[in-house]
Amino acid sequence: MLSWVDFAVVSLIVQKFGGSSLADADSVKRVARRIVATKAEGHQVVVVVSAMGDTTDELLDLAEQVSPKPPARELDMLLTSGERISMALLAMAISDLGEDARSYTGSQAGLITDSAHGAARIIDVTPGRIAEALNEGAIPIVAGFQGVAQDTKDITTLGRGGSDTTAVALAAALEASVCEIYTDVDGVFSADPRVVPAARKLEFVTYEEMLELAAVGAKVLHLRCVEYARRFDLPIHVRSSFSQREGTYVLSPEAIETAIAEGRAMEQPIISGVAADVNDAKVTVVGVPDEPGRAAAIFRALADAGINVDMIVQNVSAASTGRTDVTFTCPQGSAAKATDALESGSGAIGFESLVIDDQIAKVSLVGAGMRSHPGVSATFFAALAEASINVEMISTSEIRISVVTRVDDAKRAVQALHTAFGLDADGEAVVYGGTGR
Amino acid sequence: MLSWVDFAVVSLIVQKFGGSSLADADSVKRVARRIVATKAEGHQVVVVVSAMGDTTDELLDLAEQVSPKPPARELDMLLTSGERISMALLAMAISDLGEDARSYTGSQAGLITDSAHGAARIIDVTPGRIAEALNEGAIPIVAGFQGVAQDTKDITTLGRGGSDTTAVALAAALEASVCEIYTDVDGVFSADPRVVPAARKLEFVTYEEMLELAAVGAKVLHLRCVEYARRFDLPIHVRSSFSQREGTYVLSPEAIETAIAEGRAMEQPIISGVAADVNDAKVTVVGVPDEPGRAAAIFRALADAGINVDMIVQNVSAASTGRTDVTFTCPQGSAAKATDALESGSGAIGFESLVIDDQIAKVSLVGAGMRSHPGVSATFFAALAEASINVEMISTSEIRISVVTRVDDAKRAVQALHTAFGLDADGEAVVYGGTGR
Description:
The structure is a homodimer.
Chain A: E1 12-17, H1 25-40, E2 44-49, H2 55-66, H3 72-79, H4 81-96, E3 101-104, E4 111-113, E5 122-125, H5 128-135, E6 139-143, E7 146-149, E8 155-157, H6 162-173, E9 178-183, E10 204-206, H7 207-215, H8 223-232, E11 236-240, E12 248-251, H9 253-261, E13 268-269, E14 273-277, E15 280-289, H10 294-304, E16 312-314, E17 323-331, H11 335-344, H12 346-349, E18 353-357, E19 360-366, H13 376-386, E20 393-397, E21 400-406, H14 410-420, E22 431-432
Parallel strand pairs in A: 1-2, 1-9, 2-6, 3-6, 4-7, 9-11, 10-12
Antiparallel strand pairs in A: 4-5, 7-8, 11-12, 13-22, 14-19, 15-17, 15-18, 16-17, 19-21, 20-21
Helix pairs in contact in A: 1-4, 6-8, 7-8, 10-11, 13-14
């Protein structure tokens, strides 16, 4: 198989290494050798790092010891010291191999954000110093996860998945040919290999599929980073820092089509993967009067409380009572807050009772090929029925089917679907070669 | 006794806390309470912090693990994460007490330096953001030890004693009424209390005396910070973060005169203190031809090798040989380098042999009153003679007498001098009230 990016010509590559790849001094040196090897192949390299291993957790623990509710500005100042340590050490290790490496904070690298401490959004990237370092033949090492607020000039952090987002944003601004995200797994798999031993590494997925996979529990890449890459049509290569194997490319459908047409890639399967998310809870609002405005009152109360509602189902009203049940899912950690919000708003909603159920799983099938293959739903539900798995809620997008099952059934559900769609590594993949869009 | 600074009017106080005062979460909270108490008295407070406890050593250890010779730029980037952690935690602890605290890096606080990584010099202080925070009623917490290079915009560190220097430089730029240096001792003592139990805390010393004391082994304040304070005539108050007692003020002679004249201070003793430094070695260059240019060749060779030479003695030439011995002291850590440099230059110097002796101590008496009291030398040497202590080398300044003795005699020498000059806490102090300058 040919590579997705033509490495025969000199190109600019952004490489991002996470905390698990930078656990201690030895891993820092291993990563340094990898970076130097990439440069030795003739490429320009920009590196983005997270904090080493458990540094962030240790800093959070310290913060908790001095203050139960630390100000967000100060928490950002504290946490950004983590990348400062890892990037300086990595620069030292690279220098030790004879290359000129220079570390830059988010602020120095031009990561300009809004001032929402703890969850800042990138509003501009001005990597003048990075470009300058590249021109001088150096390897710039940039602190991930952090930036500087445009208005206050305070240090900010980007929140979860922030370092991946830094890498993609820098890659886009520098017009890199690819952003390599190094992690502790080989790439994106058709299912969690701990659940489905026959799961296989995907050669590629579309941005859209990756977004759906990230949303339904695949932990490899964070939503924001994929969204950013899609916006700039920037190829992401998710791969392991512990092996030299190719990982999974995240690309636009057009790039995949072209690669298939040019024989650089195999045909694309209809289905990319199956995932299960066991972190949601199901809340049922029992006995809601079946009148206009009641559902709106429920979801207004939840929105005001900042609850992230995922799936929603409303039963058909019982004619005898004129009442119905409304069921939704939300993160388990928000369930108590959700019921509080509903109790407070119970006057306007007028329900009879609330039932929380955290013994559920959301099982999802994702694949861009679904759009042009109407038989997918039939295969999906047949597979679950054959495995005697009860479906409690259903939700679909153009390229995803999700169902809620008992948490104890989740593993079997994933396995059944993985097999039914021919995703098992020794099975026969269901492929298609058309555009399907 | 009245305080040196009039705390009845609102004033700006810079408080610097070192690593031993910020060892863990509990000490951070204790320091926070102290700062808030100062503000509650009606003052404006700017805080400067070092890294917590052993953080710097731990970071240096990490650096050593990844590279035997880390680039200075990257070492600075690494080490500056230490203050980032302590200042953010301290700001959190202060916020928890209900005050608005904001942490600032050296760069954000306007500490502009040259680009000599690891030992940068402050070339400008532009504390606009600090002044702004003060005007808004906040307590700014500034990272000590660090700045930003004017030309490269890279992060720099100021080297040893850097946080004290940051505090004094900020205090001068903000026209603070005093810079309080909090440490783990009660102030500057007339001798090391571990050597002389009767040593007493000095009420005040002049900048000049403090410089001499720092140069001869008193570890309380670093030379650079005292030099900076002298240049801007900024009062320093060295005190313990573990007690509420007044410490030692470092002031100009004029400020001390005024305080004495106004009855705000007791009269000043002739002698401030006695100190011993056991970290020097004595190198004797034996059999140097007694001709013009030979001594110059010796000290040129040493200077070229970067050796810091302290005391120098040349024996009277032996008429029979036309040769002489030249003896100098330098830090023990430099002695081997010194002999290497001399061996290399032996052709131009023409000596017979080299003798290194690291079993020496430098014992010093410091006091501004020495200038106007010619009897000091006589008392000094009489005290050593009575204690049967042999003097190997002598060097004097206007306000200091230093001698080299056997290292085993150092403790007795310090005790004898401390008693002879009436410095013992239960003894009678030798005082004077004149200007003496």
